[in-house]
């Protein structure tokens, strides 16, 4: 059976995820596919080519490295370690979006793509869906933390479903917030002009997708809650054929000299890419995961999420031994943020997730002065929108 289950803790904390048996450090607690997911719009626009359904990177590792370096002459050693199978890629015959396989094309078509397929209007800027995406891109610049298309896929899924109630129920189990909390989250996603922008998005969303049975989602309150649901529960997804290739190379059994050469080559490659493309290495998107969204935060987490399959399948892995009955927690903060003072950590958590942390580390530091150190003050500027979503997208 499953190694973990969701349980209701309290009305203040909502749900949590608990181990149903002893789990050893390093073990996979579960692998989960999202109810719905979508690549970020700027990420797609900048040619980070990913499967339109599962976000699997579509470039070979070499093409990936060439693009990130801006250098088409780069040759990667050990090309046989690249896992990309171009012979399996397929396109939607009507609108030409690309999938990594026939299975993904079929899955997308069955779940939401019939409603969202642009057909020959793919490049028509006046098409309602294109107007919606353009408006979103103009409000939500990189680093991206969410996508209006995640919400569009939710609507399309319900529209296409035979059992609409089942899906509406599936979406309603994601933690929803009170109106003033929703307001804060939406504000965070859209910035200062959020009321006007939200209304514009709602009108475009309605024009593109309105459905009688989902009329509540299109009202100002319903649309705001949908937005807040995606803002609080969306889990970042990152995929990369280059990192897949690197992992495969790391596992090769090589003579020492060759091993040292290969490691030096890879280290240099990443340094050069960072100069050229900065931190934007992955195909990135976000998804809604039923079990993962039940995981509460701790500043000393006993589990972490990753995407080792180079697609949207989320792996939750134990960082420590976890006993049956113990709560499984992940960190909503990245490593650098976790090292900061309790005050700084909670400032980020309050702004982005609307709670104050009371994990053992925070309780132990409760008597520390509530001021951030000087070095921390300088770093304060770095943590804005990027934190909105769990930044655990590194693969």
From TrEMBL:
Its main location: cytoplasm. GO terms for biological process: methylation; negative regulation of gene expression, epigenetic; regulation of cell differentiation. It comes from the Eukaryota. Its EC number is 2.1.1.359, 2.1.1.372. Residues 369-395 are annotated as: Disordered. Keywords: Cytoplasm, Metal-binding, Methyltransferase, S-adenosyl-L-methionine, Transferase, Zinc, Zinc-finger. It is found in: Cytoplasm. Pfam families: SET. Residues 4-333 form the SET domain. CDD domains: SET_SMYD5. Coiled coil: none annotated. SUPFAM superfamilies: SET domain (SSF82199). It catalyses: L-lysyl-[protein] + 3 S-adenosyl-L-methionine = N(6),N(6),N(6)-trimethyl-L-lysyl-[protein] + 3 S-adenosyl-L-homocysteine + 3 H(+); L-lysyl(20)-[histone H4] + 3 S-adenosyl-L-methionine = N(6),N(6),N(6)-trimethyl-L-lysyl(20)-[histone H4] + 3 S-adenosyl-L-homocysteine + 3 H(+); L-lysyl(36)-[histone H3] + 3 S-adenosyl-L-methionine = N(6),N(6),N(6)-trimethyl-L-lysyl(36)-[histone H3] + 3 S-adenosyl-L-homocysteine + 3 H(+). InterPro entries: SET_dom, SET_dom_sf, SMYD5_SET, TPR-like_helical_dom_sf. GO terms for molecular function: histone H3K36 trimethyltransferase activity; histone H4K20 trimethyltransferase activity; zinc ion binding. The keyword Methyltransferase applies. PROSITE patterns: SET. GO terms for cellular component: cytoplasm. This is Protein-lysine N-trimethyltransferase SMYD5. It comes from Psophia crepitans. The lineage of its organism: Eukaryota, Metazoa, Chordata, Craniata, Vertebrata.
């Amino acid at each position: 059976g499953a190694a973990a289950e969701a349980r209701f803790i309290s009305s203040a904390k909502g749900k949590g995820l608990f181990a149903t048996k002893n789990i050893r450090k390093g073990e996979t607690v579960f692998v989960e596919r999202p109810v719905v997911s979508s690549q970020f719009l700027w990420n797609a626009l900048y040619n980070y080519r990913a499967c339109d359904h599962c976000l699997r990177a579509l470039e070979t590792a070499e093409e990936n490295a060439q693009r990130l370096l801006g250098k088409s002459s780069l040759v990667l050693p050990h090309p046989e370690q690249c896992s990309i199978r171009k012979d399996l890629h397929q396109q939607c015959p009507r609108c030409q979006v690309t999938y990594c396989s026939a299975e993904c094309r079929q899955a997308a078509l069955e779940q939401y793509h019939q409603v969202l397929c642009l057909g020959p209007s793919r490049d028509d800027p006046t098409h309602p869906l294109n107007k919606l995406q353009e408006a979103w891109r103009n409000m939500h610049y990189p680093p991206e933390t969410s996508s209006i298309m995640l919400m569009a896929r939710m609507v399309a899924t319900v529209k296409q479903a035979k059992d609409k109630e089942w899906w509406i129920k599936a979406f309603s189990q994601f933690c929803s917030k009170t109106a003033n909390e929703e307001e804060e989250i939406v504000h965070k996603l859209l910035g200062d002009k959020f009321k006007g922008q939200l209304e514009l998005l709602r009108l475009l969303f309605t024009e593109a997708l309105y459905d009688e049975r989902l009329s509540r989602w299109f009202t100002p309150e319903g649309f705001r809650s949908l937005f807040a649901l995606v803002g609080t529960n969306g889990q970042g997804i990152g995929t990369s054929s280059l990192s897949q290739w690197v992992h495969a190379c790391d596992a090769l059994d090589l003579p020492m000299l060759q091993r040292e050469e290969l490691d030096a080559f890879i280290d240099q490659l990443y340094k050069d890419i960072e100069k050229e493309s900065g931190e934007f290495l992955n195909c990135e998107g976000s998804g809604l995961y039923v079990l993962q969204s039940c995981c509460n935060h701790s500043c000393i987490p006993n589990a972490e999420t990753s995407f080792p399959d180079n697609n949207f399948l989320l792996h939750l892995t134990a960082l420590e031994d976890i006993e049956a009955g113990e709560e499984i927690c992940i960190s909503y903060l990245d490593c650098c943020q976790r090292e900061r003072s309790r005050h700084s950590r909670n400032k980020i958590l309050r702004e982005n997730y609307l709670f104050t942390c009371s994990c053992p580390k925070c309780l132990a530091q409760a008597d520390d002065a509530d001021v951030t150190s000087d070095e921390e003050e300088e770093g304060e500027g770095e943590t804005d929108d990027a934190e909105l979503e769990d930044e655990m997208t590194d693969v």
